[in-house]
């Protein structure tokens, strides 16, 4: 054994001189060998320093063989205990810093010997290809993980196992000790299944790594099919035929759904997307904005890279410098990806936007790529050759479907039949106009006088091209709102489109939101129940681009969304009219100073103040801002008027945040978000926040402390508490004591070991990557609980015996609870609609008798 140990030391010494770029080169060499099926010609092109490392892989395999020869036993590679002993020997020998390189070198050595394989050569090549992918993922994840080292070692164990299986196929018979019996295709197929499961586990570890190292990015999901589809069943079939989604055929294809604004292109595109069978695909979707800028397009590129290419920057945040780099990275990723990909791009308004987003030449890559686009003009998609581009022009609704949109439900409209017929005729089958008109009539109980007024408004808009009818109806409905609702609509169009409902609601008011939703000027979009809990956090405010453009045009003199417009307002001396500003730096203005005198000029009317990074406020304002409701700061400035008596929403994303600011906050405040506050961390005593019971929502992000440095006893109205990426947070009992109204608790990445006992009123409990949690005995007492997420709670071994008492539970996510052994009382969870046990090896196969209507992922 001493000689084996010495040989391992020699290998380790050779590995010490290997730099990161050599490891990347080795992975590329392995991929080249796979592409050429290990042919001798490709072996000759391997650099000498890399050949030495590959020879070390062969040495490691010989060491394993000799070790087993000395033990006198043949190894069953599907016996975990035996494999663990083998792997431990190698791990100790090569050292913690080099075992990833050891795996890569063994794979590479075998790839150079493929020609010597006596049998099952194709199967071995497939296994080796899988192992190259696993080695690449482990190599990226190893420096990023904290508590998942053992799980990565399991990945290395599978690489060793696969290497031994493939080595047994060599004609040289040097590795006769590697198996109890000769391997067959079943062994190789069994190993392939193990690697598939490992990839899922590694993806979970990658998500943890992203969560800990950078901001969280969420994969896009397929949308829900519309509840009341009207006139789209036939178009869906036609678009599906044009898409040709069969993944067996490697080809490139683009389908463009085009038509005038308000014709239902997005509605149809989402309906098509929701019905596609995307099993086996990587897929993504992005939405282009009316005022798409390079920065927005860069973020779209980052999202596409994240969704379509799981191996790209695996486990780390994807951050591009500009759109040109994004196009280069996308082209490279498309070339390397072997799985079919599907991408839905909604609302392509300008040809240049699409050229900035995607690289040229995708159609010549020979990959299975499908793009579904929606656009007003077909010309905006001219970057794709006509031979690859198929088009579908959205037709107006026929009279029958138009009536369905206009008058939903069984309503007797005989008394206004003539007016309805005329409205349908004038609207010309435009779904957006019909929806606005229909809801307005419904709210007015289908009064005849209101029908006449609508007809007059439509007649005026009929002569305007494209979206004239929609804009006239927006104007018609807008003028009949109260002033507070008008302000809410304009604020949403300029500042809050796409934001969470609860944030917007605190600023503009729930009554205004309800009025705008009832008028079809906004949509409150909620994720399907099987994706996320049905609560306010998961709903976002969405405004149709035609309506948004009209709203922004109406707000041009009162809302400012860029620095150029602000400077114009200063020159024209009309700051006193401004009700909202959102200033963010760009390439033309890398930094900007908002002068105190300009801020004070807006004091009587300002409702919304949103400042990005590198925007400074010159001096402290002593003035009062009676209308200021929303403050969003990427950096804290003491000069900002925090003491506004109308302030309801405050978000500060970088400190320093002095403790005395909490004594100045107004009693009206309902939501606070604090992120990366260095001053909070330095507090020796808990901060007393002198607020009454108005605060309903508190989020603390990236705070490195074991306990929250704030007293929350006075927050009797607090409903939602979020602690996100507070990795050292261990204790919550004192924090939540006295929070009588708390119904929602979200913890991400906290070091909580046991569940606090004072949580009986909770309806929503989401613990993500709380990997030290092991005691949940009090969970069975949460009788009101509707949503429970324990994703990534890897130390949790059991749930309480009373778990079946949770009769109201509808959503249960136990994904990546790798130590969990059972779910007591599962059959008694009669209200359960969604259940996820993916990457829970000890729960596998235990829920075969689940209800048929349960949406199950496992």
* CA-atom Rg in angstroms: 31 Å
Mean pLDDT: 78
User: DSSP helix count?
Assistant: 27
What oligomeric arrangement do these chains adopt?
Answer: single chain
Question: What would the principal axes of the Cα set say about the shape?
Answer: globular
In terms of DSSP E residues, the strand content is 5-15%
Please tally the β strands and state the result.
25
Query: How far apart are the first and last residues' alpha carbons, in Å?
Result: 44 Å
The helical percent reads 25-40%
Residue stretches low in confidence (pLDDT < 50, at least 5 long) are: 176-182, 211-217, 528-536, 681-687
Going by helix content, strand content and strand pairing, the class is alpha/beta
Largest sheet: 14 strands, parallel
Strand order of the largest sheet: 8-9-11-13-14-15-17-19-20-21-22-23-24-25
How would you characterize this protein structure?
- 39% of the residues lie in helices and 12% in strands.
- The protein is an alpha/beta fold.
- Strands 8-9-11-13-14-15-17-19-20-21-22-23-24-25 form a 14-stranded parallel sheet. The chain has a 5-stranded parallel sheet with strand order 2-3-4-1-5, with helices on both faces. A two-stranded antiparallel sheet has the order 6-7.
- The protein is globular and about 95 Å long.
- Residues 176-182, 211-217, 528-536 and 681-687 have low confidence and may be disordered.
Topology overview:
Layout: H1 2-16, H2 20-35, H3 40-43, H4 48-71, H5 80-94, H6 99-111, H7 121-141, H8 149-167, H9 185-213, H10 233-243, E1 252-258, H11 265-275, E2 282-287, H12 294-308, H13 323-336, E3 341-348, H14 351-357, E4 369-375, E5 389-393, H15 399-406, H16 417-427, H17 431-443, H18 448-461, H19 468-478, H20 483-496, H21 501-508, H22 510-518, E6 523-526, E7 539-542, H23 545-554, E8 559-560, H24 563-571, E9 580-583, E10 592-594, H25 596-601, E11 608-611, E12 615-617, E13 630-633, E14 649-652, E15 671-675, H26 678-681, E16 687-688, E17 697-701, E18 710-711, E19 720-724, H27 733-736, E20 744-748, E21 764-768, E22 787-789, E23 811-813, E24 834-836, E25 855-857
Parallel strand pairs: 1-4, 1-5, 2-3, 3-4, 8-9, 9-11, 10-12, 11-13, 13-14, 14-15, 15-17, 16-18, 17-19, 19-20, 20-21, 21-22, 22-23, 23-24, 24-25
Antiparallel strand pairs: 6-7
Helix pairs in contact: 1-4, 2-6, 2-7, 4-6, 5-8, 6-7, 6-8, 7-8, 7-9, 8-9, 10-11, 12-13, 15-17, 16-18, 17-19, 18-19, 19-23, 20-22, 20-23, 21-22
